[in-house]
Design brief:
alpha/beta; seven-stranded parallel beta sheet; 13 strands; binds nicotinamide-adenine-dinucleotide; SDR; KR_dom
Length: 441
């Protein structure tokens, strides 16, 4: 979908005019397609090049042909600033944050990354420690609003001892793959440990609602990463499915996930294929109307497609053995579920319900070596959002720190990180893909 304002504001005349009128000039994001999937660099590590991830970051940077720096220099444009605030226990020790970012923030390159590392607040020894660690969230959310120039800012809480499980997350957060994820806390814990495989090569992946939009982008990304994808959609979407089959060689499945026997037939199919490594619940619908005008059919259909069916499929596949070891489940929630939205009471209920489902299932499934997470996209440029009336669409696009809508690929990248075999330490999370939307918490 085209974003004419973004194109105009970044043209010669448009840049001059928006500057003269004091209008916002969002910088187009750089994604994998423009900048590759590797680590941004060079990295400035604070405080003084230390921190509990310094060795891992040094290794990752080295592998990517990038350098890490222990001291700020006015002559370097940094791809990323990483500050380890894990040891902050009170206001005095948090002063280091101020000193580091006060000096270095202007030295971050356009499209760069800022990463603050902390200890999960509830693990701190006393109230001072818990307060300041929780405070880091406010700090990060503010930096994300100040940073501009398509710089994404991330907060990573890592449980003590889980540093080794953070590698795939660091690679995601410090790369163009996380272009539209910003200003929120992400946690890494022990999770499913002891997995040395990384990447999706050879993994069996089920994507629901795969024929178009976000589902299609997920399918394309996993195929590009070497996964064997089964693309599922309703029979009415056969054209899109056939195009995927012809273009990507994926297997396709025409199935309405709300059919009474859908979960059982998916299980039989999964067992015949030897099980799935990854299941992505992406299929979803909206039937918007204010609650007073909403028809029972509109309420019921949205709940069935977005919540009841994917929950039943999850349960049936897990209990029936349709999953392979070190499995991953990712559900597509929505910012509507976090912030609420006019005319979307049914949709917001079904999407927010996934936040609860993920929290409940994560500690249960981890015993079987499975993680479950959700992504909550904000405004994503798809056929669905292209149909929104102009004024509302413009508001949705601009009301985030990146000043633009996300692409389906941004959601796909986030899912690919969560579903990575090396991301076993990330479990029970809801990660927003919204450019730090100004709506919602
Ligand atoms: P889309 O309408 O383009 O695609 C949804 C797909 O799901 C379609 O191919 C559709 O045929 C399929 N589907 C619907 N009902 C189904 C059923 N019963 N069984 C099997 N497949 C079914 O939408 P999209 O924009 O690509 O959205 C994908 C997901 O992302 C949805 O869950 C949506 O709620 C969520 N989401 C989208 C946005 C956005 O801005 N586009 C924002 C937040 C969340």
């Amino acid at each position: 979908m085209s974003d004419r304002y973004l194109d105009f504001a970044n043209s010669g005349v448009g840049g001059w005019l928006t500057g003269a009128l004091g209008l916002p000039r969002p910088a187009p994001l750089q994604r994998r397609a423009e900048a590759g999937a590797g680590l941004v660099g060079p990295l400035l590590l604070g405080p003084d090049g230390n921190g509990r991830l310094a060795a891992i970051l040094g290794r990752l940077a080295g592998a990517a042909g990038q350098k890490t720096h222990a001291a700020w220099s006015p002559d370097v444009r940094y791809g990323g600033l990483v500050f380890d605030a894990s040891n902050c226990v009170d206001a005095a020790s948090a002063q280091g944050l101020y000193r580091f970012f006060h000096q270095a923030i202007r030295s971050v390159a356009e499209h760069g990354r800022i990463l603050v590392i902390g200890t999960p607040p509830e693990l701190m020894a006393d109230v001072g420690g818990e307060a300041i660690q929780r405070g880091l969230e406010g700090f990060v959310r503010s930096l994300a609003k100040e940073a501009r120039r398509s710089i994404a800012v991330h907060m990573l809480y890592i449980a003590p001892g889980a540093e080794g499980a953070a590698e795939s997350t660091l690679e995601f957060l410090l790369s163009p793959r996380s272009a539209y994820v910003s200003g929120q806390p992400i946690r890494v814990g022990a999770g499913v440990a002891g997995v040395d495989q990384a990447g999706h090569k050879g993994r069996r992946v089920l994507v629901t609602g795969a024929s178009r939009g976000i589902g299609e982008a997920i399918t394309r990304l996993f195929v590009a990463e070497g996964a064997q994808v089964v693309a599922l959609d309703v029979a009415g979407a056969v054209e899109g499915l056939s195009a995927l089959k012809a273009g990507l060689g994926v297997e396709t499945l025409a199935l309405d996930i709300t059919a009474p026997d859908a979960a059982e037939s998916l299980l039989a199919d999964a067992l015949a294929r030897g099980g799935y490594d990854v299941v992505i619940h992406n299929a979803g619908i909206t039937l918007d109307r204010t609650i007073a005008r909403m028809e029972p059919r509109e309420w019921d259909s949205v709940m069935a497609v977005n919540l009841t069916a994917p929950l039943a499929i999850t349960r049936t596949l897990v209990e029936g053995g349709g999953r392979r070891p070190n499995g991953r489940i990712v559900a597509v929630s929505s910012l509507s579920g976090i912030a609420g939205n006019m005319g979307q009471s049914n949709y917001a209920l079904s999407k927010a319900a996934w936040i609860g489902a993920v929290r409940r299932l994560a500690p249960q499934l981890v015993e079987q070596g499975i993680t479950i997470n959700a992504v909550a996209p904000g405004f994503i440029e798809t056929q669905m959002t292209a149909a929104i009336p102009f004024a509302i669409r413009e508001a949705g696009r601009r009301m985030n720190s990146m000043g633009q809508g996300g692409h389906p690929a941004d959601v796909a990248e986030t899912i690919a990180w969560l579903a990575d075999p090396a991301s076993g330490g990330v479990n029970g999370q809801v990660v927003r893909v919204c450019g730090q939307s100004l709506l919602g918490a």
